[in-house]
Fold this protein.
Amino acid sequence: MNWSNWAEFWAMGGHARYVWGSFAMVALVLAAEWAQLAWRRRLARRPEGLRGIALDKEVKAHEAANET
Amino acid sequence: MAAGRINWYAFAAPRRFYDLAGALIPWLGGLAALLGVAGLVIGLGIAPTDAQQGDAYRIIFVHVPVAWMSMIIYLAMAFWAGVSLVFNARLAAMLALALAPTGALMTFLALWTGALWGRPTWGAWWVWDARLTSELVLLFLYVGFLALHAAIDDVRRADRAAALLALVGVVNVPIIYFSVVWWNTLHQGASVSLSSAPTMAAIMLAGMLIATLALWCYCIAIVLARVRVLIVEREGASKWMARKEEWT
């Protein structure tokens, strides 16, 4: 291990804001990307949503057309 | 087709691909998390302080992986865009579209971490150097691809127009990669090369490669997840989708 204590680790030899600014932004962006996609996924699948209702109509119309 | 062989073409059907991707995502995500933690421990904890740059050099453990991914994802996006144009394949177009946001984010992160590294080592957040400028052009290409796709209402037409843009823009990737060789840049040359011995300590190289592998797994997982969402959005009205248990 390169560090002898936590204070030294967080200080990063005086370059704390550059090092932590880089790692924090990467973590933030990746987390935000996941969260946005999870939200979009829920929206796309929600049956009670406007989109879901429209899809439901299409499915029913398709099934009705196939039956006749 | 011989018995026991897998018919890979079957996965070109969005429905089959949807299930395949769903099975792969948890494994890739888990692997990304494990490798990511290992990379962080090596990069931030174990690797020694650099003699010239002090601890600012530790930015390399995120900067190089995101910069590599920004170029690799563009190549993958242009490849699938080309496949979608030639074969008029729906899934290939969805793959290209799913790659673009992740590629744009990787490019942004490469520029961001580069600025935070440039400040303590060069004394400047930004310089109009060939490497930095061509990477900025890459960000504009990703944003242009997404904007063009969003501007056209008919998705299949949007796929074709954006695919053309992706293919034209691919010329920028070798320019980024070789910019440090072709021009006299402030940005340093390649840290890792296939043709010569690495110029960095083994533990630093190991941390960087592990972090890169972690990011590979992350990017593949999130792109597959985005393709699944795109399939639901575009083909949600198909009966197979409507009847899936997950639909509820």
About this structure: Residues 16-45 of chain A form the longest helix (30 residues). Chain A touches chain B at residues 1-3, 9, 12-15, 17-19, 21-23, 25-26, 29-30, 33-34, 37, 40-41, 44-45, 47, 51, 55-56, 58-59, 62-63 (CB under 8 Å).
